[in-house]
């Protein structure tokens, strides 16, 4: 998390762990978290965690 807070090693919204080898990005979208990664400029992943708890809880008065 230190890389995100300081902006160290960031390139266009991506955190570069090892140049030309591994980078990732974190974003909040639609109330959830999206993690994207690229390995060896070949394999790309995207994982989404949605905040289903807040959507399923109904507040009644």
Structural commentary:
- This protein has 61 residues and is an alpha+beta fold.
- It contains 2 helices and 5 strands, in the order H-E-E-E-E-E-H.
- It has helices at residues 2-6, 52-56, and strands at 10-11, 14-18, 22-29, 32-39, 43-49.
- Strand 3 and strand 4 form a beta hairpin.
- The longest helix is centred in the N-terminal third of the chain and has 5 residues, at 2-6.
- The chain starts with a helix and ends in a 5-residue tail after the last helix.
- The mean pLDDT is 75.
- Give the strand content: over 45%
Q: Which shape, going by the Cα principal axes?
A: elongated
Please summarize the sheet with the most strands. 5 strands, antiparallel
Radius of gyration from CA coordinates: 15 Å
The tally of beta strands, per DSSP, is: 5
Properties at a glance:
61 residues; alpha+beta; 5-stranded antiparallel beta sheet; 5 strands; 49% strand; elongated
